[in-house]
Each structure stands twice: as structure tokens, then as C-alpha cells.
TrEMBL record:
Signal peptide: none annotated. This is DUF3283 domain-containing protein. It comes from Vibrio albus. One of its GO terms (biological process) is DNA replication. GO terms for molecular function: DNA binding; DNA-directed DNA polymerase activity. The lineage of its organism: Bacteria, Pseudomonadati, Pseudomonadota, Gammaproteobacteria, Vibrionales.
Length: 69
């Protein structure tokens, strides 16, 4: 079954984007190409508290998955 992501509501699209950003930042940390300050900078750019919480949950999830402290 395929899902057309462009048909999702804007809030769901944004959650997917935040999850992708979290994954990429944690991957960069694992590769020693970024530090915790990069995650903090991205976090502070997010205005909505629910989106901040979602981003932080995604960061924590990917840190656990990738073994990043």
C-alpha cells in the first residue's frame, strides 16, 4: 500500500519533516560532523511547544537507535 505524503494535512507533514531533521542531526553527531549545539539550535528555532516536544522525542529515539550519547 502506498501513501501519498502530499495529501497529508500540514501538521502531519511538519511532524515528518521534524522527524527527518532529528534523524539527520543525530546521524551527523554519530559521524562527528555535528554536536549537541546543533540540535539545540534547531530546537530553539521551533516556535510551537508541541512541535518542540515531537522533535525532542525524535532526537531521543534516534540517539537510542544509533547509540549516540
Amino acid at each position: 500500500m502506498s501513501i501519498n505524503l502530499s495529501l497529508l494535512p500540514p501538521g502531519e507533514k511538519n511532524k515528518i519533516e521534524l522527524d527527518k531533521q532529528a534523524s539527520f542531526l543525530v546521524w551527523k553527531m554519530k559521524q562527528a560532523k555535528a554536536g549537541p549545539d546543533d540540535i539545540t539550535a534547531t530546537f530553539t528555532k521551533i516556535r510551537d511547544e508541541q512541535e518542540q516536544a515531537w522533535f525532542q522525542q525524535s532526537v531521543d529515539k534516534y540517539k537510542k537507535m544509533m547509540g549516540v550519547a
